[in-house]
Design brief:
There is one protein chain. It is built from 6 helices and no strands. By secondary structure, the chain is mainly alpha-helical. Helix 1 crosses helix 2, helix 1 packs across helix 6 and helix 3 runs antiparallel to helix 4. It starts with a helix and ends in a 20-residue tail after the last helix.
Length: 139
Amino acid sequence: MESRNVAIAALVLRLSLGAMFLAHGLTKVLVFTPAGTVAFFASLGIPAIFAWLTMLAEVGGGILLLAGVQVRWVALLQLPVLLGALVVHGGNGWMFSNANGGWEFPAFWAVAQVILALLGDGARLVGHVGVGLDLAACH
């Protein structure tokens, strides 16, 4: 029973983090627009390539996490985005509700990504013979 709970917990964590990355990435692409995101990064003294890499990591990585593709690697490869956000928000204090956002949210998110990398994919939404866990069998 415990391994089943761990598998379900990893699945919930993976889906949650995937949805968060996708939402943040799509906000940069659809709301702020790529040009606006690049301009914001430039206002912080960050080269444009990092704005593009951030959008790619957030949208692409979010989709890969939701799909359960190479979860451990994706979780680790998204860490630089979160560590960059931690640096950007580091001087703003603890709470993300502070002006320009604090550092606790990117710090927690980075820790959650490390935990996901350690846990792996978790349960599968659809059972596969010998792979993962069929949620229909979990009561």
